[in-house]
Amino acid sequence: MSRVSLTQYLVEQQREHGHIPGELRLLIEVVARTCKRIAISVNKGALGDVLGSAGTANVQGEVQKKLDVIANELLLEANEWGGNLAAMASEEMDTIHLVPNRYPQGEYLLLYDPLDGSSNIDVNVSIGTIFSVLKKPGTQQGVSEADFLQPGQSQVAAGYCVYGPQTMLVLTVGDGVAMFTLDREMGSWSLTAENVRIPEDTKEFAINMSNLRHWAPPVRRYIDECLAGTTGPRKKDFNMRWVASMVADVHRILTRGGIFMYPWDQREPDKPGKLRLMYEANPMAFLVEQAGGAATNGVQRILELQPGKLHERVSVILGSKNEVERVTGYHTPRP
Ligand code: P6P
Predict the structure, then answer these.
(1) What are phi and psi of 235, to 5 degrees?
(2) Ligand 1 pocket, residues with Cβ under 6 angstroms
(3) All domains of the chain in start order, with CATH
(4) What is the mean pLDDT of residues 183-198?
């Protein structure tokens, strides 16, 4: 049986729902092709000059891995010529990257974390590329950072590529979530799941437990109740997973349910959280909601948050709807 390719899926989705005009389809296909190219570098490991530190720091003040820089460069170069993009923003770049004047400017804005989970690269644990697509507001020529500062519900597409035992592309354009597996013999993406649904209940939570003493009381209460298992108020035992690679943890939740939490903690009280709103939380929240899950910052839907800065951080609680609503309820007790 011949499988549905990414191009066929996008063409048929456009025919049925009209959400993927040609310029957006080109953007998605170019990002998907670049993820295949990134996978080649990731899979080289010690056989290629791709491991270890690049000896530079990014805007977050984090040491950049060689693969962070490689992935960022590949995405920049691949997305400049299409005539469908006005500019790009990346976790690895201080400011937005305008499409060079030698190319026509388009109406889309592309944001990405080129390689999330970089601390896992050198120890061969799954990592990923996360991307988010917005439309440039207005019709005026030119583009500024302010044009990127749109709430997540304005996204027209979002997705990630997980470089794991399988290389998989997971995508939404607002009509549900589809998953594609890289067919290495063909060198193409094959549709392997669509209309993905996250179970509303779960027995599996994902959080970095080493931060337990730093959490706010509502998070501490929720986790304590999970740990109490059948002897506590939840009356059921829970399991825990923490890959420390958001793409891997979210992929597990999209595949079998669960709740992922990277909440505010008192280690750096001025920071609302560790994860970035524009190119980590927003695309993941779009995917999770499209799969019937929920995503909040503990108080509000992540997709409703109005960004103030390109690289701002946010507290993230996402996954199985009933669990996310429970944790959110602990933050905002019912009147
Ligand atoms: P910690 C990876 O660096 C990342 O940004 C996310 O992918 C991941 O969920 C989180 O940080 C892990 O953070 O503090 O557990 O190492």
Answers:
(1) 55, 30
(2) 116-117, 119, 208, 244-246, 262, 274-275
(3) 6-193 (3.30.540.10), 204-330 (3.40.190.80)
(4) 97
Name the residue among 155, 129, 106 with its Cα closest to residue 39: 129
pLDDT in tens, 213-248: 999 999 999 999 999 999 999 999 999 999 999 999
Which residue carries 């976790």 as its tokens? 91
Cross-strand pairs, 108:
85, 135
Q: At 282, which amino acid appears? A: N
**Nearest residue by C-alpha to atom 9 in ligand 1:** 246
Of the candidates 133, 168, 131, the residue with the CA atom closest to the CA atom of residue 39? 168
Question: Measured between alpha carbons, how far is 292 from 305 in angstroms, rounded to an integer?
Answer: 19
pTM: 0.97
Q: Is the pLDDT reported for residue 60 higher than 80?
A: no
Q: Would you state the pLDDT for residue 50? A: 87
Contact between 193 and 183 (Cβ < 8 Å): no
